[in-house]
Amino acid sequence: MNNDTIAAIGTAMTHSGIGIVRISGSEAIGIADRIFRAKKSGKKLADVPTHTLHYGHIVNRDQIIDEVLVSVMRGPHSYTAEDVVEINCHGGILVMKKILDTVMEYGARPAEAGEFTKRAFLNGRMDLSQAEAVIDIINSQNEFALKSAVKQLSGSVSDKIKEIRKRLIYEIAYIESALDDPEHYPMENYGEELAEKIEPLLQEIRKLTDHADDGRMLKEGIKTVILGKPNAGKSSLLNLMVGSERAIVTDIEGTTRDTLEEHILLDGISLNIVDTAGIRETADLVEQIGVERAKEQAAEADLVLYVIDATKPLDENDKEIIQCIADKKAIVLFNKCDLDTLLDEQEIRQMLPEQTVVVFSAKDRTGFEILKDRIREMFYAEELKFNDEIYLTSARHKAALDSAYRSLQLVMDSIAAGMPEDFFTIDMMSAYEQLGYITGESVEDDLVNEIFSKFCMGK
Prior knowledge:
- The chain has 459 residues and is an alpha/beta fold.
- Helix content is 46%, strand content 18%.
- The protein has helices spanning 28-35, 93-105, 115-122, 128-139, 143-153, 156-180, 190-210, 212-220, 234-242, 285-300, 316-324, 345-351, 368-379, 395-416, 421-439, 445-453; strands at residues 6-9, 16-24, 36-38, 52-60, 63-73, 84-91, 109-110, 222-228, 260-266, 269-275, 303-309, 330-335, 356-359.
- Helix 11 (316-324) links the parallel strand 11 (303-309) and strand 12.
- Helix 7 (190-210) packs antiparallel against helix 14 and helix 14 (395-416) packs antiparallel against helix 15 (421-439).
């Protein structure tokens, strides 16, 4: 890691009331001292206690740039575990840039994206899973995602992973000691004893990975695909959920020919909604492509909203849609209930006994509150309420846990096959290393660089 001093604007580059220019490194306080003038006392920042705030001006030679408050935080008790100075200035784009330019003129270099948090990781201030939680907090789009990220930052994921690794390394060390000194480390019936210890670890890992899809939805939002025949009311439903005329609504069939995507918060529930082309047999090549894309989106959906036009009889197109949603989480909207209907609601319930049916009207909002309640029940039931559960929100974490699980399963297979004890350590060490990828204890530099490249400047 470079030991030079870095600087960046730590707030958004917009006209706002307050802006922050952050400096970190061994020369942070010295650089700040050369450009800061205390309002009255003439004190030097090098002489002030840590975690103190100081009023004055930032100057470049004899020119006053801005009136500021300067925070001094000495390492290791700072965000990066290095000396950190934060210049709290007025939030104009020009003034923030002039202060940053002055800081760099006096010895700092521009920070790379995520370099402050990367230094916090490399200096042992936080592990890799906690560092990833920082960007998740910044990017949180709903309350559930924010709570999950805050829990991860506080160590919920890393504490669990470290606990599992600790139990594994103890057994690995015991086997190695027994192989070197069998007299003092008996191995009689050790395979059976080890199996009893590995089984709970497998269960703990499986519990984490079983919740991974829940965690992904908490973080990214529920991928919600609207399906139905042309003119069933799909675009009207999208507009109702978005709260604006996002999609064109006409009486002409086939108006929607491609997917239309929107991200919304529905009573705190994060939804990534995809409106699709009406599913039907058609000779129109462009519409055919739209229908195929609709089916592809449905296959990848976390939730399907199947809109049925209750004023028309079911046909072969409906049967095709029903097949598409047979094994999906879906809500069937018995739409246009404000008009004279030809379909029997009970018939639909019998055809789709595993799916929720809501009597609905996109025109007058009938059933809309019920729809929201059903979505909440499906995805945020008791098991998804925030208690002591840990939710994985990273595909990288899930992949590492899956690999660790497979390695521990191989240990169980070796025990069952009566293999020698040294075979156990090979797969146990593999699991140990895979878990280390989550916390950063077994991670390569390239992966670290890739992770922090996704951060914003100044963080």
